[in-house]
Amino acid sequence: MPIACGITEVCPQFEMEDLLLFTFKSPVPRQFLPRLSSFAVATVAVMILPSSASSGRSQFSAIPNSLRHPEVNASNADPVSSDEFVRFAISLQPSNVAGLQSFVDDVSNPYSPNYRHFLSPDQVGAKFGPSQADLNATVTFLTSNGFTIADVAKNRMVIVVEGTAAQVASAFRTNLVHATRVDSDGWPDIYRTNTTPLQMPAAIANKVVSIDGIDTSIRMKRRATTTQLNPTLFRACYNASTSYGAGYYGQGVHIAIANWDGYRLNNIPYWTSTYGLPVPSGGSGSNIVVVKVGTGTTYGVGTPQGEGDLDLQAVLQAAPLATVYDYDDSTNDTGAPITTLSKISSDNLADIVTESYGWETSSSNTYYGSTWTSAHNVHLSLSAQGITYMAATGDDGTAAFPSRGARYGYPDIDPEVLNVGGSIATVDSTTGVRSSEASWGVSGGYGGTGGFDPYDTAAHGFAFNVAPSYQTSTISSKTSKYNYRLIPDLASSAGGKNGLGSNTGTGWAFAIFYNTGTGTSYPPGTSIAIDGTSIASPATAGALGALMGEVFNGVTPNGTRSNVRFGRVQNYLYSIGSNASVFYDITAGSSIGNLPGTSTAATPAVGWDYATGWGALNFGGLYNYIKSSGINP
Asked: pTM for the full model?
């Protein structure tokens, strides 16, 4: 999606699904920045080493699904410099993935005696992860080929590796080239790929799920425009004001943001002062902890495109005193998101994680099923650890799934992820008292993603894209017809009008503070307007975090924080179902498009629907339900 610069200018260099449509205090000049990645084209190709059994080396086997662009070869692509830096992740198969899934289902079941008996990441590795022998053998292979081991996940599932293109070509018996394609916006896109399947010794090759980062063709897309809400109106709209007024500001709760964008922490004082938010003793923003992942941009470096600032401010509007961990990775981290998810799991710091990105599941005939299986395995570990992982569903309606071009269905299709879609909430501009809430979509599909994805099936490596137990037990009339992970689970205000596109400055859902750090074009304190499910997920995460702090008030966290976490909260929410005291059921509004492969419109309805899930959370109502039922999420 383009970003609007000033009132009518459009900057085509940005591609954002969160639709950061900016309204600045004053117009800015139109700028066209090059999107073409700059690569030094080497004059010497990285050559594949010949495979020879007579060399005394062990028998090698190809890694399945490791050749993602068979159409690319040395004759139609440019060679890679032998010293080009390569950072990649090797994901190993859990020793008992069925057992891990069973454990997660059991520990997430409110009616199980094992409910909320979560594990540490080391315990996940010991009980379900790859064997220590397989991990050691893989590390030995890598180090013997000159690679540096940057990180080994505590659950043993991911090894992050650094080296050169020459080392990759030699160790994995392939060639590396730079190829060019045209992306969905018509811009040239240069990526690195291997021309033959990656190979490893046969004894460990069958233990590998995926290798991510050698091929760099996977792309992410940000999911991000009165009825315009601010922190005070948001809390009133979703009944989070009572707890907030009682002093529950997220103290003691750990909320993490999975971020692949720049940001500026000097926007935080503008946010807290403008809306009178409580400030920690160390000063505004001192409760934000930046965790660098791989080649992360780190604070103050790079040009932010708004997502990092948006997520931070959205979390703080309901949980201003929570400890916020910004897992700052780079758009250039070719092993993302595996490297980021693995780091969050190993650190085991976060109680809730929010993500506002979608990841390409396929492009043309390229399949990334093995990559998302690796991500799903890490998500299983996160659920086993009691970490609630949330994500924005996207802003393109049902059309986001069945399209056959660049597709961004992950992590939506993962049952371990709580999906938050979009809505349009109308409130009193002074008190925040809600008057209505409708689906965020127009006929034909636009605004808030919902439905299911019949394309990413087991045949393409997406075996986890099936209806989870918490859906089959509560919305069986739908799962029996479409046995896929159905989305969304919830909705929250994401659009100031029906659909996207207005840039009037008054028809947007939220306003945040943003600057590029240049001090000229976008100086500190610049106010921008925004729509998108990118605001729905982190805003819900902040309010859920404040609720979590209230529920566990007075409880001292144990060493792994397992006693102050909700875990895979989907099970609990679906067990409540159509409860008017917990959910604001959204029954008004337009269709967000037809369900894939059908003529059935995804329209809001009573109960769970493809447009808004169960509806929006009534946080005060959820707290009362928790206390009256005696069962914590």
From this structure: 0.88
